[in-house]
Amino acid sequence: MRPENPPGEPSMLKNTGKSRVLIVDDHPLVRRGMAQLINQEADLHICCEAGNAEEAMAAIRNCTHDLAIVDISMEGISGIELVKAFKARNGNLPVLVMSMHDESLYAERALRAGAKGYVMKQEAPETILAAIRQILRGNIHVSDKIRARMLRQITDGHTQNDASSLNKLGDRELEILQFIGQGFTTIEIAEKINRSIKTIEAHRANLKKKLGLKDGAKLVHFAVQWVARSGIANPDGPGE
User: Does 9 reside within a domain?
Assistant: First the structure.
């Protein structure tokens, strides 16, 4: 099944009564799979697809959507930054972040950025569809695990991981720390997020400072151990 419309371009579907969904993911197979899942539903339709932030912003300029589904890891700006850009341009557009990244690290960041929900790509199709419909009804969707943690934070009056130095990191820094832990080199990270080597080196220096690590070797060790503890998948694999 080929995508119904090129990335960033609206479909010609009109007046069907279906909720119009924008999918933003840099993997064509993921977009195709989501289109197959969603388009078979009586009340949902993928009206636009985008492979990066530029295409996504073009899509929301050219088409009206009821919901956007956004991945976190993309070339250029991250999905979290794209959520912020969506909110700045169209604060009424609800966004569901759907990612392979550990929800315990990214779900609350996504909500703070303006998303209305977070779901892991590993979840069953029924869970993903339920998340979409819950957000379309005006509700927030997070897993039971994240909901319980957020309630504990409210009742306890503090963040569970206040002591964790990871909370000091920005969204891009956390993403780069993950890439380091997965074995990607500075050059490979620069290529993945479409930034200069100098920029990645600056991020690495900031990571060492914020995490209290003396050198690059300790940063790599910390990142590898963190990725291993978090169980974060590495679908692409580092280069040789």
Answer: no
